[in-house]
Amino acid sequence: MGYSIVFIVCSLLLVLQLSTVAGKGKAIIGSPSLAPAPAPGPEYTNLTDLLSVAGPFHTFLNYLESTKVIDTFQSQANDTEEGITLFVPKDSAFASLKKPSLSNLTSDQLKSLCLFHALPHYYSLADFKNLSDMSPINTFAGGNLYSLNFTDDSGTVHLNSGWSRTKVSSAVRTTFPVAVYQVDKVLLPEAIFGTDLPPMPAPAPAPETDIAPTADSPAADQTGKARAAASPDSSSPSASHRMMSWGILNHLVLAIAGGFLMLLL
Ligand SMILES: *[C@@H]1O[C@H](CO)[C@@H](O)[C@H](O)[C@H]1NC(C)=O
Ligand SMILES: *[C@@H]1O[C@H](CO)[C@@H](O)[C@H](O)[C@H]1NC(C)=O
Ligand SMILES: *[C@@H]1O[C@H](CO)[C@@H](O)[C@H](O)[C@H]1NC(C)=O
Ligand SMILES: *[C@@H]1O[C@H](CO)[C@@H](O)[C@H](O)[C@H]1NC(C)=O
Ligand SMILES: *[C@@H]1O[C@H](CO)[C@@H](O)[C@H](O)[C@H]1NC(C)=O
User: Higher pLDDT residue, 5 or 57?
Assistant: First the structure.
């Protein structure tokens, strides 16, 4: 009589423990499937709209429109095979450009200058290491005279056009097929301004300024995903599996200990 009660209580305890373990297991298994959002296909990006709201990039956009280079860039952005990478100087970069001036450039030179600010391929932040290995890189303006050198100084990407040495100061958008990066200076190609180079400032040791995506851009989301991918331990199936096994073990030990305790009493 007494033993059967103990047996029933023990069995009940065990069933209770196992069912809570199963419930927890399901919750743990269930949660990671919610995390990766379904990857959306490449969508159409209107570059005019993008450059009007970010920045301010109005001066650059005006040059793109007056030279019709915006159409070239837009059709490349529409090309989902290759995509496009743009290096866009802020209005302040054009304002601080005193010498050489852009005012006496011919329309062809102005067009080349605009094309010089783009690469006919999509490069994400992660690809910049590759770009520095492959430098010099031919730009959209074509030819070796319109090439850019990239150097990745511990996370800070520097561009060298011969005349201008500048850095990528932020990622405005990095969603395939359109990558837009803000640069600190207007990129002046040797092919237009000659080889009469201004004295090159010594490359100062770059502080730990990682490229910061602007908060309200899709780039922020992308960087988040990249970080998550970089630390697989945090949410990988194996991690949750380990957690679950430990949970089951924990509960089983508790249940068996409880059973023994009751048997002893
Ligand atoms: C892109 O946006 C601009 C400005 O809103 C608009 O004038 C232009 O027609 C748009 N282009 C396309 C292809 O939708
Ligand atoms: C780019 O694609 C959009 C949407 O499909 C289209 O309206 C626009 O005319 C295209 N622009 C160019 C330059 O190909
Ligand atoms: C623009 O003007 C400056 C000074 O007048 C001159 O030195 C320079 O060569 C000109 N540039 C071009 C591309 O004509
Ligand atoms: C990096 O460069 C190598 C060789 O130049 C190429 O095979 C590889 O696909 C590149 N990787 C990326 C991510 O562009
Ligand atoms: C880019 O790098 C190559 C090879 O290191 C060098 O010959 C060339 O002068 C550089 N170009 C510029 C614009 O700095």
Answer: 57
Range scoring the smallest mean pLDDT among 37-51, 91-105, 246-260: 246-260
User: How far, in Å, is the centroid of ligand 1 from the Cα of 46?
Assistant: 6
How many domains are there within the chain?
1
Q: Tell me which of 48, 75, 81 to substitute to probe ligand 2's pocket, judged by most ligand atoms within 8 Å of the beta carbon.
A: 75
Residues contacting ligand 5 via CB (< 6 Å): 135-136, 149, 160-162
Range list of H helices, 31-90: 47-53, 58-66, 69-78
166 contacts 120 by C-beta, under 8 angstroms: no
For the segment 82-125, what is each residue's pLDDT rounded down to a tens digit?
Answer: 999 999 999 999 998 877 788 888 999 999 999 999 999 999 98
* Assigned domain for 132 exists: yes
Distance CA(87)–CA(163), nearest Å, equals: 16
Which domain CATH number covers 145? 2.30.180.10
Q: What is the Cα–Cα distance from 221 to 216, expressed in whole angstroms?
A: 9
Output the residue whose Cα is nearest ligand 4's atom 1.
Answer: 130
Measured in whole angstroms, the distance separating CA 36 from the mean position of its chain's CA atoms is 16
Residue 180 domain-assigned (yes or no): yes
134 Cβ closer than 6 Å to some ligand 4 atom: yes
Residue ranges of alpha helices (H) inside 103-230 are 107-115, 128-134, 190-193, 218-230
Q: Does residue 131 belong to any structural domain of this protein?
A: yes
Range of the domain at 59: 47-192
183 occurs within a structural domain: yes
Q: Which two tokens stand for residue 168?
A: 């990528």
Which atom from ligand 4 is nearest to the alpha carbon of 126?
13
Q: How many angstroms separate the alpha carbon of residue 14 from the centre of ligand 1?
A: 66
